[in-house]
Amino acid sequence: MGIEFPENDRKELQSAKNILENPGVAAKVTNLIGSPIEKGLGQLPVEWKGKISDVTQTALMKASDAAIFTMKDIPGESSSNNWHKLGVAISGGIGGFFGISAIAAELALSTTIMLRSIADIARSEGESISQVEVKLACLEVFALGGASESDDGAESGYYAVRAALAKLVADAADFLATKTLTQEGAPVLVRFIAEVAERYSIQITDKAAAQAVPAIGAAGGAIINTVFMDHFQDMAKGHFVVRRLERKHGKELVQRIYQELPTLG
User: Fold this and answer.
1) What whole-number distance in Å separates Cα of residue 99 and Cα of residue 106?
2) Domain extent at residue 105
3) What is the Rg, in whole angstroms, of the alpha carbon atoms belonging to the chain?
4) For residue range 33-48, what is the model confidence (pLDDT) as tens digits?
5) Domain-embedded: residue 2
6) What is the pTM assigned to this prediction?
7) At 154, is the pLDDT very low, low, confident or very high (cuts 50, 70, 90)?
8) CA distance 26 to 52
Protein backbone atom coordinates (compact mmCIF):
# COMPACT_ATOMS: atom_id res chain seq x y z
CA MET A 1 0.00 0.00 0.00
CA GLY A 2 1.40 3.44 -0.97
CA ILE A 3 2.18 6.23 1.48
CA GLU A 4 -0.76 8.57 2.11
CA PHE A 5 -0.32 12.11 0.81
CA PRO A 6 -3.21 14.42 1.72
CA GLU A 7 -5.23 15.69 -1.23
CA ASN A 8 -4.95 19.32 -0.09
CA ASP A 9 -1.17 19.02 0.01
CA ARG A 10 -1.19 17.38 -3.43
CA LYS A 11 -3.19 20.32 -4.80
CA GLU A 12 -0.75 22.79 -3.25
CA LEU A 13 2.17 20.88 -4.73
CA GLN A 14 0.50 20.83 -8.16
CA SER A 15 -0.06 24.58 -7.98
CA ALA A 16 3.59 25.11 -7.00
CA LYS A 17 4.76 22.92 -9.88
CA ASN A 18 2.60 24.84 -12.35
CA ILE A 19 4.42 28.01 -11.28
CA LEU A 20 7.94 26.62 -10.99
CA GLU A 21 8.02 24.78 -14.32
CA ASN A 22 6.35 27.54 -16.37
CA PRO A 23 7.98 30.83 -15.37
CA GLY A 24 7.83 32.51 -18.81
CA VAL A 25 9.00 35.96 -17.68
CA ALA A 26 10.41 36.91 -21.10
CA ALA A 27 7.10 36.01 -22.76
CA LYS A 28 5.19 38.12 -20.20
CA VAL A 29 7.37 41.14 -20.90
CA THR A 30 7.10 40.63 -24.67
CA ASN A 31 3.30 40.52 -24.38
CA LEU A 32 3.39 43.66 -22.24
CA ILE A 33 5.55 45.86 -24.45
CA GLY A 34 4.18 44.50 -27.71
CA SER A 35 7.50 43.71 -29.36
CA PRO A 36 9.87 40.76 -28.96
CA ILE A 37 12.78 41.08 -26.56
CA GLU A 38 15.14 40.20 -29.43
CA LYS A 39 14.46 43.67 -30.82
CA GLY A 40 15.75 45.20 -27.61
CA LEU A 41 18.87 42.99 -27.57
CA GLY A 42 20.15 44.89 -30.58
CA GLN A 43 19.90 48.14 -28.61
CA LEU A 44 22.14 46.96 -25.76
CA PRO A 45 25.74 48.24 -25.64
CA VAL A 46 28.30 45.87 -27.19
CA GLU A 47 30.06 45.37 -23.86
CA TRP A 48 26.81 44.49 -22.01
CA LYS A 49 27.04 40.71 -22.48
CA GLY A 50 30.51 40.63 -20.97
CA LYS A 51 29.47 42.77 -17.99
CA ILE A 52 26.10 41.20 -17.15
CA SER A 53 27.50 38.42 -14.95
CA ASP A 54 29.57 40.88 -12.89
CA VAL A 55 26.64 43.28 -12.60
CA THR A 56 24.23 40.59 -11.37
CA GLN A 57 26.79 39.08 -9.00
CA THR A 58 27.47 42.50 -7.44
CA ALA A 59 23.73 43.17 -7.17
CA LEU A 60 23.14 39.85 -5.40
CA MET A 61 26.00 40.43 -2.95
CA LYS A 62 24.73 43.92 -2.09
CA ALA A 63 21.16 42.64 -1.79
CA SER A 64 22.13 39.77 0.50
CA ASP A 65 23.90 42.23 2.78
CA ALA A 66 20.93 44.59 3.10
CA ALA A 67 17.62 42.92 2.39
CA ILE A 68 16.87 40.45 5.15
CA PHE A 69 18.49 41.70 8.34
CA THR A 70 16.01 44.52 9.00
CA MET A 71 13.06 42.08 8.97
CA LYS A 72 11.57 40.62 12.13
CA ASP A 73 11.76 36.83 12.32
CA ILE A 74 8.07 35.97 12.71
CA PRO A 75 7.35 32.71 10.82
CA GLY A 76 3.81 32.65 9.42
CA GLU A 77 3.38 36.43 9.19
CA SER A 78 1.58 37.49 5.99
CA SER A 79 3.78 38.83 3.19
CA SER A 80 3.47 42.41 1.88
CA ASN A 81 3.66 41.64 -1.85
CA ASN A 82 2.01 44.84 -3.09
CA TRP A 83 4.33 47.15 -1.12
CA HIS A 84 7.36 45.42 -2.63
CA LYS A 85 5.86 45.69 -6.13
CA LEU A 86 5.43 49.42 -5.56
CA GLY A 87 9.08 49.69 -4.50
CA VAL A 88 10.46 48.04 -7.63
CA ALA A 89 8.03 49.98 -9.82
CA ILE A 90 9.52 53.21 -8.47
CA SER A 91 13.11 51.99 -8.98
CA GLY A 92 12.22 50.76 -12.48
CA GLY A 93 10.66 54.11 -13.30
CA ILE A 94 13.84 55.92 -12.29
CA GLY A 95 15.95 53.41 -14.25
CA GLY A 96 13.71 53.75 -17.28
CA PHE A 97 13.98 57.54 -17.14
CA PHE A 98 17.79 57.45 -17.22
CA GLY A 99 17.91 54.57 -19.71
CA ILE A 100 20.22 51.58 -20.06
CA SER A 101 23.17 53.47 -18.54
CA ALA A 102 21.43 53.34 -15.14
CA ILE A 103 20.78 49.58 -15.18
CA ALA A 104 23.63 48.61 -12.81
CA ALA A 105 22.58 51.04 -10.07
CA GLU A 106 18.89 50.33 -10.57
CA LEU A 107 19.52 46.55 -10.54
CA ALA A 108 21.22 46.68 -7.13
CA LEU A 109 18.20 48.50 -5.66
CA SER A 110 15.52 46.39 -7.35
CA THR A 111 17.33 43.12 -6.49
CA THR A 112 17.46 44.19 -2.84
CA ILE A 113 13.72 44.91 -2.83
CA MET A 114 12.99 41.61 -4.60
CA LEU A 115 15.13 39.65 -2.12
CA ARG A 116 13.32 41.30 0.76
CA SER A 117 10.00 40.29 -0.81
CA ILE A 118 11.27 36.73 -1.30
CA ALA A 119 12.26 36.57 2.39
CA ASP A 120 8.84 37.98 3.30
CA ILE A 121 7.16 35.14 1.36
CA ALA A 122 9.51 32.59 2.96
CA ARG A 123 8.46 33.87 6.39
CA SER A 124 4.77 33.64 5.42
CA GLU A 125 5.33 29.93 4.61
CA GLY A 126 6.68 29.28 8.11
CA GLU A 127 10.42 29.74 7.48
CA SER A 128 12.68 31.30 10.12
CA ILE A 129 14.59 33.95 8.16
CA SER A 130 17.24 34.24 10.86
CA GLN A 131 18.53 30.79 9.84
CA VAL A 132 21.48 30.74 7.43
CA GLU A 133 20.00 27.92 5.35
CA VAL A 134 16.78 29.92 4.83
CA LYS A 135 18.72 33.02 3.75
CA LEU A 136 20.51 30.88 1.14
CA ALA A 137 17.16 29.40 0.07
CA CYS A 138 15.93 32.97 -0.52
CA LEU A 139 18.92 33.66 -2.78
CA GLU A 140 18.24 30.36 -4.61
CA VAL A 141 14.97 31.84 -5.90
CA PHE A 142 16.94 34.07 -8.29
CA ALA A 143 18.24 30.91 -9.99
CA LEU A 144 14.75 29.54 -10.65
CA GLY A 145 13.36 29.96 -14.14
CA GLY A 146 16.75 30.90 -15.58
CA ALA A 147 18.96 28.25 -17.17
CA SER A 148 22.74 28.41 -17.03
CA GLU A 149 24.88 28.02 -20.14
CA SER A 150 25.77 24.45 -19.14
CA ASP A 151 22.14 23.33 -18.77
CA ASP A 152 20.21 21.29 -21.29
CA GLY A 153 16.40 21.10 -21.19
CA ALA A 154 16.42 18.18 -18.74
CA GLU A 155 18.64 20.04 -16.28
CA SER A 156 16.72 23.29 -15.90
CA GLY A 157 13.66 22.04 -13.98
CA TYR A 158 13.03 23.04 -10.37
CA TYR A 159 14.58 20.06 -8.61
CA ALA A 160 17.43 19.94 -11.13
CA VAL A 161 18.36 23.53 -10.24
CA ARG A 162 18.22 22.73 -6.54
CA ALA A 163 20.40 19.66 -7.10
CA ALA A 164 22.91 21.74 -9.09
CA LEU A 165 23.15 24.22 -6.20
CA ALA A 166 22.97 21.70 -3.34
CA LYS A 167 26.72 21.26 -2.74
CA LEU A 168 27.33 25.03 -2.95
CA VAL A 169 24.44 25.67 -0.53
CA ALA A 170 25.80 23.12 1.95
CA ASP A 171 29.34 24.51 1.78
CA ALA A 172 28.11 28.10 2.14
CA ALA A 173 25.88 27.14 5.09
CA ASP A 174 28.82 25.48 6.85
CA PHE A 175 30.96 28.57 6.32
CA LEU A 176 28.24 30.99 7.41
CA ALA A 177 27.58 29.08 10.61
CA THR A 178 30.37 31.19 12.12
CA LYS A 179 30.63 34.13 9.69
CA THR A 180 28.43 36.94 8.34
CA LEU A 181 26.67 36.65 5.00
CA THR A 182 29.01 38.91 3.04
CA GLN A 183 32.22 38.64 5.05
CA GLU A 184 35.36 39.03 2.96
CA GLY A 185 37.38 35.92 2.25
CA ALA A 186 34.36 33.69 1.68
CA PRO A 187 35.16 31.78 -1.52
CA VAL A 188 32.41 29.20 -0.93
CA LEU A 189 29.82 31.97 -0.70
CA VAL A 190 31.24 33.70 -3.78
CA ARG A 191 30.94 30.44 -5.75
CA PHE A 192 27.32 30.05 -4.67
CA ILE A 193 26.47 33.66 -5.56
CA ALA A 194 28.28 33.29 -8.91
CA GLU A 195 26.22 30.21 -9.83
CA VAL A 196 22.97 31.93 -8.88
CA ALA A 197 24.08 35.06 -10.77
CA GLU A 198 24.74 33.04 -13.93
CA ARG A 199 21.12 31.93 -13.99
CA TYR A 200 19.74 35.27 -12.81
CA SER A 201 21.72 37.11 -15.51
CA ILE A 202 19.71 35.34 -18.26
CA GLN A 203 16.56 36.98 -16.93
CA ILE A 204 18.27 40.32 -16.30
CA THR A 205 19.43 40.36 -19.92
CA ASP A 206 15.77 39.99 -20.92
CA LYS A 207 14.86 42.84 -18.56
CA ALA A 208 17.61 45.09 -19.91
CA ALA A 209 16.65 44.27 -23.50
CA ALA A 210 13.01 45.15 -22.79
CA GLN A 211 14.04 48.45 -21.20
CA ALA A 212 16.31 49.17 -24.18
CA VAL A 213 13.37 49.08 -26.61
CA PRO A 214 12.98 52.65 -27.91
CA ALA A 215 10.21 54.69 -26.25
CA ILE A 216 9.92 52.43 -23.18
CA GLY A 217 10.93 55.29 -20.85
CA ALA A 218 10.11 55.68 -17.18
CA ALA A 219 6.56 54.29 -17.33
CA GLY A 220 7.72 51.21 -19.23
CA GLY A 221 10.61 50.66 -16.82
CA ALA A 222 8.20 50.74 -13.88
CA ILE A 223 5.85 48.24 -15.54
CA ILE A 224 8.67 45.89 -16.57
CA ASN A 225 10.05 45.91 -13.01
CA THR A 226 6.59 45.09 -11.70
CA VAL A 227 6.40 42.09 -14.04
CA PHE A 228 9.81 40.89 -12.81
CA MET A 229 8.77 41.31 -9.18
CA ASP A 230 5.59 39.36 -9.90
CA HIS A 231 7.72 36.63 -11.50
CA PHE A 232 10.08 36.28 -8.54
CA GLN A 233 7.22 36.45 -6.04
CA ASP A 234 5.64 33.54 -7.93
CA MET A 235 8.94 31.62 -7.91
CA ALA A 236 9.32 32.30 -4.17
CA LYS A 237 5.77 31.17 -3.44
CA GLY A 238 6.28 27.91 -5.33
CA HIS A 239 9.71 27.30 -3.80
CA PHE A 240 8.65 27.87 -0.19
CA VAL A 241 5.40 25.91 -0.55
CA VAL A 242 7.53 22.95 -1.71
CA ARG A 243 9.92 23.47 1.22
CA ARG A 244 7.01 23.65 3.69
CA LEU A 245 5.64 20.37 2.33
CA GLU A 246 9.14 18.86 2.54
CA ARG A 247 9.32 19.79 6.23
CA LYS A 248 5.94 18.11 6.74
CA HIS A 249 6.39 14.95 4.65
CA GLY A 250 10.12 14.65 3.96
CA LYS A 251 12.02 15.81 0.88
CA GLU A 252 12.23 12.40 -0.80
CA LEU A 253 8.46 11.82 -0.80
CA VAL A 254 7.59 15.35 -1.91
CA GLN A 255 10.14 15.22 -4.73
CA ARG A 256 8.79 11.87 -5.94
CA ILE A 257 5.19 13.09 -5.96
CA TYR A 258 6.24 16.41 -7.58
CA GLN A 259 7.87 14.49 -10.42
CA GLU A 260 4.80 12.28 -10.85
CA LEU A 261 2.46 15.25 -11.16
CA PRO A 262 1.70 16.56 -14.67
CA THR A 263 3.36 19.77 -15.84
CA LEU A 264 0.49 22.11 -16.64
CA GLY A 265 0.91 25.34 -18.58
Assistant:
1) 10
2) 7-39+46-260
3) 18
4) 666 666 666 666 666 6
5) no
6) 0.80
7) very low
8) 17
